[in-house]
Each structure stands twice: as structure tokens, then as C-alpha cells.
Amino acid sequence: MTKVWTGNEIRSTFLKFFEERGHRVVRSSSLVPANDPTLLFTNAGMNQFKDVFLGIEQRDYKRAVSCQKCVRAGGKHNDLENVGFTNRHHTFFEMLGNFSFGDYFKKDAIAFAWELITSPHWYAIPIEKLYFTVFGGAEVSPGVALPPDHDAASLWVATGAPKDRVIEVPGLSDNFWAMGDTGPCGPCSEIHYDMGPAASDEGHADCKFPCDCGRYVEIWNLVFMQFNRDASGKLNPLPKPSVDTGAGLERLAAVLQGKISNFDTDLFQPLVEEAANLARVSTESERNRAFVTKGMGESAAIPPPRSRGGRLPSLRIIADHSRAATFLISDGVVPSNEGRGYVLRKIIRRALLQVRFLKADFPFLSLILPSVVAGMKSAYPELEEKFAHIARILDEEEKQFSRTIDTGLKKLYEDVEPDLWSKEKRLGLIAFSGEKAFRLYDTYGLPLDFMRDVLGDEGFALDEVGFNKAMEEQRARAKASWKGVHKEAANPVYTKLAETYRTEPDF
To answer: Which tens digits make up the pLDDT trace of 397-432?
Structure first.
């Protein structure tokens, strides 16, 4: 791999490769799924082709390729709390995929993937860095088992993969793909890349595939769509076997740019650097800085550096969440207190919490927006067209966040400060009082999940049992108070008469 690939080049090359092989280039669908109540957000490239796979919809092409916008930040598929602290979790990401609607199946799908990944004319990833897994058999419904996918294994070997690097994995968790509890599904084959010992989250110097320490990263999943799973769990054969693949652009960028973390690729670095510039911190010093700071700093309203990496995770969270918020607003989502709008509001406010941690000035996210648009407008020109609208929404939400959170956040950190550096806290023996959390919720308007995020970043558990108990007690008090007020207001004469002439007990 001598070529230095940009993220935009990786995306356009993928589309070009499959277009030259008879695939229709299909634009990404909206992040708001059309006519699919089962999904909060579009979370995979095949979402827009679901009815085609089921044979419900007919199109004038049988092969397609796309780069699909995806969000996983709510519901079943939720990576929100890991973002910024791991190398590969994101709220917004792009999924490269090629699709066959009954036109070709395993043989061609495997041949296409092999050529694009390994050919010196394309991505040229060294074969010795790759591993290939296939479905190893499993019980897919009570009493019904699918055998191992020996065909896929043989096809990889015939294409050129070393036999000892083609591995059959039993079970449904890794090599059997399904869009949800119902719908299209089938066995799959995953391509993994060896990032080397430096990528091991557990410091492994010489672990073997498939160790899950972070060294071996899945970069492409080829799904062989054969079934439609109904509500009873039965797998019904699709009219024509089809292919659905998904390769994460961010992961491919890390591989082709020689980076361990997706956040170190050109897809994120301009945003991380811009966030650092606005916050007046150095990304290089943050990477090298040992965590030694103690105390609350200049203000109790500002969170202290966290034990999970100082300021660098904050910069990464801002970069990731800025992308997600930009694309969600562009696709018509607005912050609110329910549904998709609630998830967007949570993403924006999680980013703004990191802005506070960095002690940066407001407004902030709208100043990151030009960097987001500059990096993505070639693939998504609509971002430039909607720039002013996106900036306005971000600024409005930022102002509202400041008004509602200022006092409550300061109080929260005042409450945790006595235990912040205690031995008991380091041992995980301290949970933040549910009663205190409810008081912050009731008095200052701090949402429960917001407090959960803040406390989690600081290493505290939240006593949610105590929170719920305090909530119920408050509801009971409010109900009793309402009953008394209602009774007095509705029957003042009868109440006073009863008190004046109440019957005394006869002894």
C-alpha cells in the first residue's frame, strides 16, 4: 500500500469499481427511513433496498452500489456512550456497499471483494494482513439448524485466500446477518484486517486471530441474502438469492492511511484540529500528556479532566457529534423532546458538554460546521445548500442548552467533588445519590440520561433505583396535595361544616 488514500478517494474508488462492473450508482437515502416504522434512523446500506430484496418492489436495475449515510445513536443500535473513547465507535458513519437483487450470488460477490481489496490496481491491501470468516452453522429456530457455509469457504480459497486464513465461525452472533428481528437475513462472510500489536487495547504482543482485543478489525461484511424471517422466527427462502455488502468507510480509511484509530484519519482530523483550535488546546500535547491534574480547576461548573484520556476524547466526541448533528438536521430532523428529535438533542448536548469541559467559548458547534461541510460537500452537496439552516438550529440549541444546564451542571459537580478523588470512588464503591439526582432533575431540569452520561464520564454509577423512588414519592405528594386542594376548592362550605359539627366519639 504505497498510495496515500484520502477518505473521498476511497469512497469514489469503491463506487467506480462497481459501476465499471455493471452496478447502478444509487445515492444515499435519507437518515430518516421512508415508510419503515421499525427503524429510528437508517443504520445500514440495505435499508433503502429492503422491499427490493423481499420482491415487493421492482427497479430497472439488478445491481447497485452506494455510499449510505448511517446513524446509530438510539434504540437497539446505539454506540453513543462509547464514542470518543474507542478507536471505531461513531454515531454517524458511511457504509459502502454493493448489492445484487437476484443477479449474482456468492461466487461473484467474493470475487469482486477480493479484487477490490487486494489488487494492485485498486486498494492493494496485503493478503498477509487479511482474514476471512464464514458462517459455521447454527440453530436458527427451534429444531432447525443451518449447516456451515462450506461453499463460501471454498470460494475464498479458490479466489486466492490462504486456506488457513479462511475460518468457519459457528453461531448466529458473528456470521449470520439480519436487519432486525424480522426481514431479510442470511449467512455472511467477513473480511478482517490485522492492525498489528500496537492496536491491541489489552497490550497483547503476539495474539492470534480471532482475538477480540482490538488488533483484528472487521472491514467488510458480505451478506448472502437467502431468507426472510417472519414474526414466528421462521426463515422463508427469498424469491431469488441476493447479495448485500457493507464496508465501513471510516475503517477502510484507517487501514489505507495506516492509522490505528478512525479519528486519526482525514475524515476526522480536520474537525478534531478545528475543535482544538477553537478551544485553544494542542492535540499533540493531549496525546502525550499524562493524566496528573487533580481538583476542580477554575470553576465548579467546569468538569475536571477525566481518567479516560484527558481532553482528547472530548475533541473526538465533538468531531463525531458535529458530523452526526449536521447530517441529521440536513435530513429534516430538529431537536425536540421525543423520537428522532430527542436523539439529535442528546447528540448536540453531549457535544456541548465536552465544549464546557474544554472551557471553550460559545457558540461553538456552528463554528465547526464549515469544516464538516468542506470535507463532505463533494459527496453530499446538499450540506452546502442547507448551511444557514443547520447553523441556525445549532446556535438555537446551544443557547437553550446554556440556559437550562448552567446552574444544574454547576450543582452536580459541587455534589460529586467531595468523592471525586477518593479511594472508594476509584474502586467503584460509590454511586451518586438517586435522591440528589432527582433534586437536580426536579429543580434544575437536568435530564436523567444527561446526568448518567456526566457521571459515567467521571467514573460514578447513578443510583437509578433511588432516583425512581424519589420520583414516585414526589408524584405521590403532588397527587395528595392536588386532592386536598381540589377538595377545598370544590367544597369549601361542606368542609367547614364538617370541621365545625364533626361528631365526637361516644365513650
So the answer is: 999 888 877 788 888 888 887 776 665 655 566 788
For residue 114 the three cell numbers come to 477480493
Is residue 302 very low, low, confident or very high in pLDDT (cuts 50, 70, 90)? Answer: very low
Show contacts of 2-10: CB within 8 Å, 24+ apart.
2/124, 3/124, 3/256, 4/257, 5/123, 5/253, 5/256, 5/257, 6/266, 7/249, 7/250, 7/253, 7/265, 7/266, 7/267, 7/375, 8/375, 8/378, 8/379, 10/123, 10/249, 10/252, 10/253, 10/256
* Grid coordinates given for 326: 449536521
| pLDDT higher than 70, residue 287 | no
Exposure string for 461-470, b = 16+ CB within 10 A, e = fewer: ebbbebbeeb
**Buried b or exposed e, range 374-406, using 16+ CB within 10 angstroms:** ebbeebbeebeebbeebbebbbebbeebeebbe
Q: Which residues fall within 8 angstroms of residue 10, CB to CB, at 6 or more apart?
A: 123, 249, 252, 253, 256
3-class secondary-structure state, position 93: strand
Three-state SS sequence of 42-70? CCCCCHHHHHHHCCCCCCCCCEEEEEEEE
Burial 320-343 (b: 16+ CB within 10 A, else e): bbbbbbbbbbbbebebeeeebebb
Measured between alpha carbons, how far is 465 from 308 in angstroms, rounded to an integer?
26
Mean pLDDT confidence for 68-89: 83
Nearest to 278 by CA among 328, 321, 314, 327: 314
- What pLDDT is attached to residue 362? 87
CB-count burial class (<10 Å; 0-12, 13-18, 19+) for 488:
exposed
Q: What's the mean pLDDT in 320-349?
A: 94
The answer to whether residues 463 and 433 touch, using CB atoms and an 8 Å cutoff, is yes
Predicted TM-score (pTM) of the model is: 0.82
